[in-house]
Description:
Elements (H helix, E strand, L loop, with lengths): L1 H11 L4 H11 L3 H9 L10 H21 L19 H11 L2 H4 L5 E5 L5 H7 L6 E6 L6 H12 L3 E5 L2 H11 L7 E4 L5 H12 L8 E7 L2 H4 L5 H5 L5 H12 L3 E7 L9 E7 L2
Parallel strand pairs: 1-2, 1-4, 2-3, 4-5
Antiparallel strand pairs: 5-7, 6-7
Helix pairs in contact: 1-2, 3-4, 3-8, 4-8, 9-10, 10-13
Amino acid sequence: xxxARLILSLLTIGLSRARVEESRRVLNQNQxxxxxxxxxxxxxxxxxxxxxxxxxxxxxHHLGAAAHEISAKFRDEGFWGVFGSHYHGAKVNFxxxxxxxxxxxxxxxxxxxxxxxxxxxxxxxxxxxxxRETRVLSFDLGDYPWNKKQASxxxxxxxxxxxxxxxxxLETVQNFVAKNKDFKCDVAFIDGAKTRQIRNQDLKxxxxxxxVGDTLLLFDEATTIECMNQGDCQSTRQNxxxxxxxxxxxxxxxxxxxxxxxDCAWPVGMEGADGVCKARYAK
Length: 283
């Protein structure tokens, strides 16, 4: 009814039928269409600029709204992801700056990003927008009602620059490695299952798609730096309501020499509870 009244008002003030029909088309677009149209607009801003980050936030807003249109269970704009409003931008700003300010990545003409954990596609968009030629390969279980439709939306927007493989990452990543021996990730983001066992295996599997000392590794659900760097993990083990499983996997990876943590960031009020880190594989 509201759309009909607006169209009538436009006709009343003398706009042409063509202009009115264009207004009707825009008003009737769903959020996935809005996202695709916006993503396809020519990019006039430099990579990693403030203006480009503003574009990322606008795209992520519409993509989150598209997920909500699919299922009301997707309650928050960044629901169950690094764009969650309760993080106040701390995680995604850290990730964006980690990519944009990395000297080793700056020397590459284009980037290949691999991520475990697609959810609604918002982290994938962050990576895709970090450079004109950046490509993203996502692995996701696909168990939420919005996963596959959101993947189709991101694919419609970015074409061959985006691909996704659905299924259990413990199997899909290994299968991909076996069939693509020369494939390498310049950036890898681990944000899948939270248990110690699975997060450990995800880290090891992505290692086969990485280059020691070169691939930038990003990971979520970091609790204390003391635990991850082979320090005191006692509080993490006792707190079963935290992301303790993931953090203990990071402890395992550091203590075994698999990776070296470079830096971390936590949202205000979540210090030592739920942060995001960057690292590089050491062996």
